[in-house]
Amino acid sequence: MHFIFLFIALNPVFSEIPESRLETPNLKSEAFSGDKKRISYKDIDEGRARFRPQMARWEFVGDSHFIREGRRGETLNPITLEAESLEVSPENGNKPGAPQPKPGFKAALQVALENGEPLKGRPFLIRDSLKSNIQVEVYDNIVAARHDDDPVIVTRIPSRPELLRLAPGGKFLSGVVDNNLVVIDLFKGRWSTVTQDGSEYIFNGKLDWVYQEEVYGRGNFNAQWWSPDGKRLAYLKLFEEGVPEFKIVRHLPFSQEVESLHYPKAGQTNPRVELWTYDPEKERSQKMDIAVHGDERLIVRVDWEPDSSRVLPQIQDRIQSRLTLLECQPDSGESQVLIDEKSNSWVNVLGAPIWLRDGSFLWKSERTGFCHIYHYRGDGTLIRQISRGEWAVKSIPRIDEDRGELWLTGSLARAIESHLFRIDMGGELLLQVTSGAGSHRTTISADGEYVLDRFSSVQNPGEVRLLDRDGLQIHQLAEARVTALGEFEDVDAALHEVSARDGYSLDVLILKPKNMSLSEPLPVWIDTYSGPNSPSVRQGYPSSSWQRFLVHQGMVVMQVNVRSSSGRGQVDTATCYRQLGVQELSDLEDAVNWICQNDWADSSRVGISGWSYGGFMAAYALTHSSAFKLGLAGGGVYDWRDYDTIYTERYMDTPELNPEGYQSTSVVKAAASLTGHLVMFHGGMDDNVHLQNMMQLAHELQLNRKSFEMMVYPESRHGVGGRSSIHMRDMRWRAIQEHLLQADGES
């Protein structure tokens, strides 16, 4: 109780926020010359100010190049826009909706069940494809499968598996029960337990926390992959022995609830991993012989060759400075190296090899510092580099082997733009298909003759254009509308290229009051993330209601792509290597210095805000720079020793090998240098960036008698939602009012 009393006394924000403190302050009218309304906090609170552009959706119909507006629109000829008659079926490319049981399935299932056996749990429905006409329903106690109108085959199971995966062709179903891999032969009614060693410390076919978060994607715990012919299954086996556990405490129940998860922090023991295959016909498992990169290797991707003859894992060393593509024989486990990528920083995982009809494949690599496409023979011999230059390929939306060409996305000009290109397989002729400075999201017709181009820019909320394959515009099909602009004042939005102290060009977006005429400068607000290769600025319409609200309250909003978040290529992204935050802050300071050379920007009232990596940057800025008066830091890592191995060591190396880097990037170690006012937010049950981060920083700030505020949201994880998010927004707005919108001496 004494601790709580002291906490409230030191942090008055925990008391109820007076309604008057949330109202829009009185602003000098000369900042705004329009007749329309300025956005008030009440408008934000009630969701009335929405600036997301509204635009009709257009799509190609099936495998044709005919077009229609929305899924129910009339089918039109792309040249004449006259109605066409076209029979649409799943076979010509339309994606089926959510699978529904075929008529009669329930009745056939009841016939298959003996003595009216009750079904337990809600059914989980799986369908391989409409072509195979196989459907599967999984209950807690049975798996029911049917082909066409045949009788339903029932397999009785002890419990429903998780992470269910249906093999291509629909003969087998795999899943995980109690960390053991199981396979069901659906039409023989047979259940097989592939592994027997599953436990709290051994995972079969299932990822642990750090692998799903940092390698295979947040929320994806699957570690099983069927071959294209559906005859073999590849899976990972993870060993958690020695991996430290971290406790997450839920404080609201009368008796605290404690979650425990394996969470290795930088420098600690990683899970050990193996790759296995399983042949369900022979009921035989085989471990793949992987010898590269030592016992601490990471298996970061698993694919199959199209003919199912070989499994293709991608392997990295612990700090991810190398990546090796292997081919493994699924029956013997023998492996050999196809490609070995190396870097002086880290190697990104850029996707699977893309196989061509002749057995060769395409491979994305950043070995030149920019992501480009390389053509390899099936044995790993390089044929040629296809794309080249100081720009980065983002994706390959289409391969046309008959024409000998690839379609690529990227940008030859500014990285904040996105364009569609075509290039021949020899890499001789590159054609930019889309035109106009902006972001182009494109769909290519099945025959490669037409392109639907959804375009937007900072000045243009959006258009849909129909182009021919060479980029000639045939029709403008739609224009976006922003209905809120009929009621609320617009803002002046502009992109700039700003020179950093070493001459590097930074992309910067500025939002300020339209037709601004001021007698005094305005405070500057920076929303940032600034994590590696995560741009904040793009050539697209600025639709954030919150940022527009801040402008209407008399602020200038600035967003900056620091060089490691520029999207220009690994050559720039790697400038943060072994020193997260250092170069990013230098670039942010240079952008602040640039904007404050204008008489409408107040250098004494600059604020910065961010969440996760952005929360780290906000706190790092206030402890390593004197340029910022206010920082709002949410869910931040305040000492990189406290974050997980795979993410942190990718960018920072290990604490043992880079002690100076960990020291210089720590917010906790620099708490005594805090300038300005820091407000921290954190989820009490954050299993990603632990609450421990905020507690460690708060302790050091208290020891150094620094003024700050903090707020814990007890039921939130790595993000704050629901009513808690409204409370957090109230706190953010109050802090902005108190520290940036009041005149000097009043805050």
Layout of helices and strands:
Layout: H1 2-10, H2 41-45, E1 58-60, E2 67-69, H3 105-112, E3 124-127, E4 134-138, E5 142-147, E6 153-156, E7 162-166, E8 172-177, E9 180-185, E10 190-193, E11 202-204, H4 209-216, E12 224-226, E13 233-239, E14 245-250, E15 257-262, E16 272-279, E17 284-287, E18 298-304, E19 311-316, E20 322-328, E21 335-342, E22 354-355, E23 361-365, E24 372-376, E25 382-385, E26 393-400, E27 405-410, E28 419-424, E29 430-432, E30 439-444, E31 450-456, E32 463-468, E33 473-479, E34 491-499, E35 505-513, E36 522-527, H5 545-552, E37 556-561, H6 570-573, H7 582-595, E38 601-611, H8 613-624, E39 630-634, H9 645-652, H10 659-664, E40 677-683, H11 692-703, E41 708-713, H12 722-741
Parallel strand pairs: 36-37, 36-38, 38-39, 39-40, 40-41
Antiparallel strand pairs: 1-2, 3-4, 4-5, 5-6, 7-8, 8-9, 9-10, 11-13, 12-13, 13-16, 14-15, 16-17, 18-19, 19-20, 20-21, 22-23, 23-24, 24-25, 26-27, 27-28, 28-29, 30-31, 31-32, 32-33, 34-35, 35-37
